[in-house]
Write a structure and sequence with these properties.
Distance between the termini: 50 Å
Radius of gyration: 18 Å
Helix content: under 10%
Oligomer: single chain
Protein name: WDR19 first beta-propeller domain-containing protein
Pfam families: Beta-prop_WDR19_1st
Structural class: mainly beta
CATH class: Mainly Beta
CATH topology: Methylamine Dehydrogenase, Chain H
Keywords: Repeat, WD repeat
CATH superfamily: YVTN repeat-like/Quinoprotein amine dehydrogenase
Number of strands: 15
Order of helices and strands: EEEEEEEEEEEEEEE
CATH architecture: 7 Propeller
GO cellular component, one term: cilium
Number of helices: 0
GO biological process, one term: intraciliary retrograde transport
């Protein structure tokens, strides 16, 4: 399947093999679509100008059904990224990155990250596949890397750890 945002109002899913197209629309209260990301076995997370993230299913029997919606900010979401290995989603706006637990769709308040006010608007978020490092870029040329998972360290010698 191929997918795209059309006119910042709806998401179109194109099945190349069957030429069957599906248009997925969202509540107008969410604002315009900023970004989206596929995850799992057919789910899409979409972020909006009104600070909302909507999770929808694209499974054949429930296509377009909203699974969850989260209001994370009072303004436009600037960037979003999902890390499936951690089961977390990072969402950014106004120099703040909020982390969401994808098991119960709750914000993990103690993992919230705040950039310096001089950093500018967050332009992108990228998470390493193993989830250890979350990187963001900003409109003022900033590049920030955050250690999100502390790797386990240990040493052993004979029968001592």
């Amino acid at each position: 399947e191929v997918s795209a945002i059309i006119n910042k109002k709806f998401l179109i899913l194109l099945n190349i093999e069957t030429t069957h197209n599906v248009e997925i629309t969202f509540s107008s209260q969410y604002g315009k679509i900023i970004d989206y990301q596929w995850f799992g076995d057919g789910y899409v997370a979409a972020s909006f100008t009104n600070g909302v993230v909507s999770i929808i299913s694209t499974h054949k029997d429930e296509i377009g059904n909203e699974v969850q919606s989260l209001v994370l900010f009072n303004s436009t979401i600037e960037a979003m990224v999902i890390n499936e290995s951690l089961g977390k989603m990072a969402v950014a706006a106004h120099g703040v990155i909020k982390i969401v637990n994808m098991n119960d769709w709750t914000e993990i308040k103690n993992e919230e990250l705040t950039l310096p006010s001089s950093s500018g608007r967050i332009t992108s978020l990228v998470w390493t596949e193993d989830g250890q490092i979350l990187t963001c870029t900003t409109s003022n040329g900033g590049l920030y890397g955050f250690l999100m998972v502390i790797p386990g360290l240990c040493a052993g010698y004979i029968n001592h750890i």
